[in-house]
Each structure stands twice: as C-alpha cells, then as structure tokens.
Design goal:
Helix content: 40-55%
CATH superfamily: Vaccinia Virus protein VP39
Largest sheet: 8 strands, mixed
Shape: globular
CATH architecture: 3-Layer(aba) Sandwich
Distance between the termini: 117 Å
Number of helices: 19
Radius of gyration: 33 Å
CATH class: Alpha Beta
Number of domains: 1
Strand order of the largest sheet: 5-6-4-1-7-8-10-9
CATH topology: Rossmann fold
Strand content: 5-15%
Number of strands: 10
Structural class: alpha/beta
C-alpha cells in the first residue's frame, strides 16, 4: 500500500482504481481529480464534426491529402494530353509536300523531308506514348513473344527492350575474336536445357501453358520495315540488348593501315576505285552500308544464304526486299522490305556447336504489328500476308492499332483532320480498324478473330488490341469451297 499511495501522491490517478479495468483519461478528468494539474492538449481529442456540421478546410486537406495529390496529378496529365492532341489536330498540313511515291506506306513528314533524324523522331515518342498508356501495352506485347517472332513495320524498334532475349543470348554461338566465323557455345545441349528450365521457374513460368508451349521463349526475331533510316535505330537498340553477339572490328596491322599506291589492271580499271567500293560495303553498321550503296548488306554466315535458297521465297536485293542486318548467326534479322507485297520466311539458324545449321521452320509462332494498318495502302492485303506466315493453330498475330472511336464527335474530329494528320504523321487515324479486321476474317482462308478489345478508356475507344490466329480446319474448308467453285465454273 505504501507504493500505491506514493504513486497517487505524485501524479494523476487515485490509488482506489481497481486493477484490471481500462479507463479513458483526458486532461479534464485529471483536472477534476487534481485542480493544480495543467491541461494537456495531446490528451484532449478534438471534437468531431457531425454529419450536418461544416468541417474546416485545413482538416479536409489533412484528411484527403493523398487523394488530392493523385487527383491533381491526373488532372495535369489529362490537360497536357488534351492540349497535345488539340495542337496536333490544329496544325496545318505543310504545303508542297505530297506522299512519296517511292514509299508504299505512310511515313511522317519530318522524316520524309529530312527535318529530323529517325533517332530524334523515336525519342519524341517517349513522352506521348507514356502519357497515353501505349508503353504498358508495348510491354505486354513484348512479353507475349515466343518461338520464331516476326514484327511487321518494326519502325524504330520500340518493342525491342520488352522482348525476352535470354534464349537468343544463351544459345547463339559468339563471333570469333578475329571477326570471321563463330566460336562454338561452350555449354552442352543438356546444360542449355537445364538453364532454360531454371529461367522459366525464376520468371514464374512454371506450369504456364500457352499455345505452342514447345517454344516458350524467343528463338529468332525478324523485323521488317520499308525505311532504312528507322531500321538503323532498331539495329542500335538490338546491339545494346545483345552486345556479345555483335562482331567486333578487327584491328588492322601496320601493313594493312599503310596506304597503297594505286595500280592499274590489264583492263585499264583503277584498283583503288574497286577497293573504295569494297570499303563502302564493309562499314560496321550494315544499315549505313545499305543506305550508301543501295545493295544488301553481306550475310554474317551461310545460314542466311541458305534461307534464301531453301524455300525460294526470300526477297532479294533487286526484288521484294533486302537483308539489312543479321545478329546471332541468323537469330535476329532486319529486312528492308514492303510488308504488303512479301514477308520473309523464318530463318535457318546456326546451331550452338557452330558447325550445323538448323532447318528453317515454315511459319512464325508470333507475328506483331503496332500502328501499321492505319498507314498501309492495302491493310487487308497485309493481314493476308501475316496469316500466310503465322503457324496455323498455335501461332498468334497481335495488333496494336488506332482508328475510329466510340463517340461521333471524336470520329468527326478524326475525319476533319485526317488529311493533315496523314500528311504530317503518315497515318490515317480515322480508319475503321475493327471493320477491316472483320472483313479480312471473312475473305482470308482460316483467319479467325480471337479477341478485339479497346483498352485505355482515356482514348475514347480509338485504341485497339487485336489477337488473331489461323484455324487450320476453317482454312481447309475455305480452300475446298474455292476448288468446288472453280470446278463448277
């Protein structure tokens, strides 16, 4: 009792409080017990305003601080996006510029006129695409790549950084230090398979079943575009993604670096001129060589040439396309080609032992395209080409497009500014993308729509995510109908 009484004399609570009970203590209750005790504002809860009572502004700001910050940022982003969209619509088309006849599909005016470089144009798309949410859709599309991949209208390679390159990096033979040929992969096939299984488990792909699950990772990548300048940007991004697979320039010896005196051949031709022409073909960046000589860049190994002669469908320099770059002994290729007329077949790649060449498959497992149907002269023909090269049944075609939206007032604005927008950006943004795809489904044998969605509600339904496949049963039935119709006629 002495200890309890001592506590009561010093402070705040009487000694008669029973143990085991809970009391809510405030400075007012303590003041009634001890008149000399000063009130403590920390123990005095602020009276809460009732439902009908007005709350002070400072209290509201303190309560909803996070919500106000999020709302303010969202409003700022929306205002910036709407301002950018309206300013882009209001720009007048540049007089004196028309669609370049040498370019079968639309290209931005700034690139056609040489006002900016392809690198600058690619950099300018970062902020608008992030603002509109396109960047997240590109990440999703890159994550869906598997097996042998074809990207149509690859442009500046804005999907490259989101593709899983682990399989290509781990299995491809590395270039020899001398710069000629390839060194065999030091790991055996069993070790490569164990690494592949380990990667799948680490990435959460264990038990994941997808169409064509026999090829869960990217085996090869083929990019096609009509412009060499944008392909050069893609090439630089691929070099950063797979630096070990890029052949390094061999240092010249003293004898090679010394200039030689020009000599005359028996036919009177200048050997120095021939050497200068050869030098142009050995520029380190194959896209620069292509732009300088208008000839295809030399293939890195015989597998690329075998792909050309194996099926008789590979485009050539004088025909439908040019092999502009080759990385990883055939695993990564870039073609300068018009995708509407011809798409290259999958590659035959060099095996990890650097001695044997793996046979080229007939079809791609994944076909991608971003914002291409809006700029192609004949989008249905392009869909037919993509259906021709994708694997029937398990293969998938993924499209990210923009076109007509949900609301008439949006479509009216798109129609009004469509000519000027095409003149500047090379894109007809008022096309009925869903209608084009539905018509192609009825006309192209086997083509089937898996899904058509319109993500990004802020775009008013103008953004399309489309997944297609080729149904082999429908393809066969349609071919039989054509044969019957031909025989009856």
């Amino acid at each position: 009792m002495m200890r309890t009484a001592g506590r009561a004399s010093r402070g705040s609570l009487p000694a008669c409080i029973p143990q085991g009970r809970t009391f809510h203590v405030t400075s007012r209750s303590l003041a009634r017990l001890n008149p000399n005790l000063k009130p403590n504002p920390k123990l005095d809860p602020k009276p809460k305003a009732g439902k009908g009572e007005a709350r002070p502004l400072s209290e509201l700001v303190e309560t909803y601080k996070k919500q106000l910050v999020v709302f303010g940022l969202g409003t700022a982003v929306m205002v910036a996006y709407i301002t950018m969209l309206i300013s882009g619509m209001a720009r007048d088309p540049c007089a004196g510029h028309s669609h370049d006849g040498d370019v079968p599909s639309g290209r931005p005016l700034d690139l056609r006129s040489g006002k900016i470089s392809a690198t600058s144009f690619d950099r300018e798309q970062d902020w608008p695409e992030w603002l509109m949410g396109v960047t997240n859709l590109r990440k999703l599309m890159g994550g869906l790549c598997r097996g042998h991949v074809l990207e149509v209208a690859v442009g500046t390679g804005r999907n490259v950084e989101y593709v899983d390159w682990d399989e290509v990096r781990s299995t491809a033979p590395h270039p020899a230090p001398e710069g000629a040929g390839f060194e065999p992969n030091p790991k055996s096939l069993q070790e490569l398979e164990l690494e592949r299984v380990k990667r799948r488990m680490e990435k959460g792909k264990k038990g994941l079943i997808l169409p064509g699950d026999d090829a869960p990772e990217v085996i090869s990548f083929t990019g096609v575009d009509v412009s060499a300048d944008v392909l050069e940007v893609t090439w630089n991004k691929l070099k950063k993604a797979m630096p070990d697979l890029i052949p390094r320039r061999r240092r010249k010896t003293k004898e090679e670096s010394e200039p030689q005196q020009p000599q005359k051949q028996s036919g009177g031709e200048d050997v120095a001129a021939a050497a200068a022409e050869t030098k142009q073909l050995t520029i380190r960046n194959p896209l620069k060589a292509l732009a300088a000589t208008k000839k295809p860049a030399p293939a890195a190994h015989p597998a690329a040439a075998a792909t050309s002669s194996g099926r008789g469908e590979e485009p050539t320099a004088g025909g439908e396309g040019v092999l502009a770059a080759n990385i990883g002994s055939g695993r990564v290729r870039l073609f300068k080609s018009d995708a509407q007329s011809h798409l290259p077949p999958p590659p035959s790649i060099l095996a990890p032992d650097a001695r044997n060449t793996m046979a080229a498959p007939r079809h791609y497992d994944t076909v991608l395209q971003n914002f291409g149907l809006c700029s192609m002269e004949d989008p249905q023909a392009l869909l037919g080409e993509m259906a021709r090269v994708v694997r029937p049944g398990s293969g998938r075609i993924y499209l990210l497009e923009h076109g007509r939206g949900w609301y008439d007032w949006i479509n009216g604005l798109l129609d009004k500014f469509a000519p000027s927008h095409f003149e500047r950006y090379g894109c007809w943004w008022n096309r009925d993308i869903e209608g084009i795809v539905r018509r192609a489904q009825g006309d192209i044998p086997g083509l089937e729509v898996v899904r058509i969605e319109r993500p990004l509600w802020t775009q008013g339904g103008t953004m399309y995510w489309i997944e297609l496949k080729v149904n082999p049963e429908r393809e066969q039935a349609k071919e039989e109908e054509k044969k019957k119709a031909g025989s009856s006629s």
